[in-house]
Design brief:
Rossmann fold; homodimer; 7-stranded mixed sheet; 3-stranded antiparallel sheet; Four Helix Bundle (Hemerythrin (Met), subunit A); alpha/beta
């Protein structure tokens, strides 16, 4: 029942298998990564993206445990740290990778000094728990987001919000809401044209594709009623860091009185404000190509700002696994937490 | 000295030759149109765009005169009207085509009832005058626009402003301004990535390409100092109708205090407000492809809003061949006109 992309990173005996999103849905090739390093390289090369690197990192940490199974517990733990650092360095703007590494390391540490099969079993248990927790939190977030959508209407989305979007659609369908979606193509990787458009169709949703430049026009037209996107990271003071293009859509939505809901499992306590978020620089050359073909003049250079920062004044709400919050009230997310049981570390 | 695209529609003995902009600069093929109908079809099929259809229409009206040279003056005049109507119907949002047809018909009417070589000569004189006038007005507009740009700085532009942009650059170079340009790729036809980027490079301008979704981020960054675009049409109350994407950039520029200057030879007295502008619907299928390749999921439909409307509150100035005007003071453009000598009919 789940769409293809919701189960597109898998652990196998010979490594981690990752569905290649770079040419999906035109081709459906799986990249087989036998080592932590191969998983890290696949993430850097955009074989998978959005939620994909989170799952890839969970399973890569199990590979790391397998690789370290033969050495003593202290050396193994050092190897796991090294693997985690390598994986976290692949893409820095989203903080899912930190959480994936943390999930596995905590599980390993909780069983004391182990090696061999016990180490692998502990890592696997941690990765599975991380997988389940991510899916459960996405489901909760999807349900809270669906509550904010109209009974009937059209929703604009940008890039590919992956499990968050899938769960929004499933929740809306469960509650009988009839929504159409408009998605932006999201250059240069065309995540919207390929991943979002195809998955929405897979889910039976009426879907229309526009180019990235058409967002303001369609927001001005009255033809869409809500804007929703993921947030790669949301700072405690309500800045939404997400795929470049989100800012322009959010400003236009604000201008034309269309609500904008940003989805993130939790605001990031390690990022009080946007200055605390590391921004990934991607090669400018990626802007000059489309699916491998040069589509710009040979005489120009490209610049790839991969993310932008939407200030809280353009955000209607930040929807988390604990409900929707005003962007200036994100501290409330943690209001009921007690020391030691914080979910979002 | 002029860049290739500034001389890319030509009259020849066998018809009108039009440089095909759909794959330029990757290929440099000329489409040979032997009849008015072939020119009209070429405009509809986007063989040329921006200023191109204006020149193509001028020369197509000469073809119409050649086609009508054998019949009596009244029948010939009817044929010219019919040709003009066909050409004006090709693309309706920009009103250059109306002016091109008008330029030739006025020249024909001014010589009285003629046929044969006299008819063709009159049409040719009208077309040549229209060509010269368009270039002279673009030059004036370019000079006024260049005056508004900083001595040193970076200018963001969208789509392909054709002769207006060329004249801005030449004027800036004449006066010693050192400008870098940032251009958006402008999906789905990639006019920015191909035509603007290549022509700016041809003119020796430092040029960086971004995707359409990056405009707001770069405007927020402080890295660009001015936004300039053409206006396909500017209404008397200051609405700028232009290539879709302009609205989003203009709103973002306004938000981040970057001035936006829209270039048009003259505001349109036939369009008191945006409701008076006919909007062209282009096939949604064009959004699903990039340079002929399908780049979207097979399961989605596209929607192509080709133009958007930027309200005057987001426009710093409208720059015309008579100087820059506040968008709410466009009536001043015509303040010194006397009946019978209006330039912009």
């Amino acid at each position: 029942m789940l769409p293809v992309l919701a189960d597109s990173v898998r652990l196998a005996d010979d490594g981690v298998h990752i569905l290649d999103r770079r040419d999906y849905p035109f081709s459906r090739e799986w990249v087989r990564c036998r080592t932590v390093e191969e998983v890290a390289a696949a993430i850097e090369e955009m074989v998978t993206q959005s939620s994909g690197p989170y799952f890839a990192t969970l399973w890569a940490m199990v590979l790391a445990a397998r690789e370290a199974a033969a050495v003593d517990p202290a050396a193994a733990r050092t190897e796991l740290d090294r693997a985690g650092a390598r994986l976290m360095a692949t893409r820095r703007t989203n903080n899912h990778l930190r959480k994936a590494v943390h999930a596995v390391l905590c599980a390993v540490d909780s069983v004391g000094s182990v090696t061999g099969d016990e180490l692998v079993a502990a890592a696997l248990a941690g990765a599975r728990a991380g997988d389940e927790r991510y899916r459960a939190r996405s489901r909760a977030l999807g349900e809270y987001t669906a509550e904010l959508l109209p009974e009937r209407g059209s929703v604009l989305t940008h890039c590919w919000a992956d499990l968050y979007l899938v769960e929004v659609v499933l929740a809306a369908q469960r509650t009988g809401k009839r929504l159409a979606f408009v998605c932006t193509e999201t250059r240069p990787y065309l995540q919207g044209a390929r991943l979002t458009a195809d998955t929405l169709a897979e889910l039976g949703v009426d879907t229309t594709l526009i180019t990235d430049g058409m967002g303001a026009a369609i927001l001005a037209s009255g033809d869409v009623h809500t804007l929703i996107t993921a947030g790669d990271r949301v700072t405690m003071d309500g800045h939404v860091v997400n795929k470049v293009g989100t800012l322009g859509l959010a400003i236009a939505a604000h201008t034309f009185d269309v609500p904008f809901h940003a989805m993130v499992q939790a605001p990031d306590r390690q990022a009080p404000t946007a200055a605390d978020v590391p921004f990934e620089d991607r090669p400018g050359d990626e802007v000059l190509h489309t699916l491998g073909r040069r589509t710009a003049s040979d005489r120009v250079r490209g610049r790839y700002l991969a993310f932008d920062i939407t200030p809280p004044r353009f955000v209607t709400s930040v929807v988390t696994d604990r409900g929707a919050f005003h962007p200036e009230k994100l501290a409330d997310y943690y209001a009921d937490d007690h020391a030691g049981e914080e979910q979002d570390q």
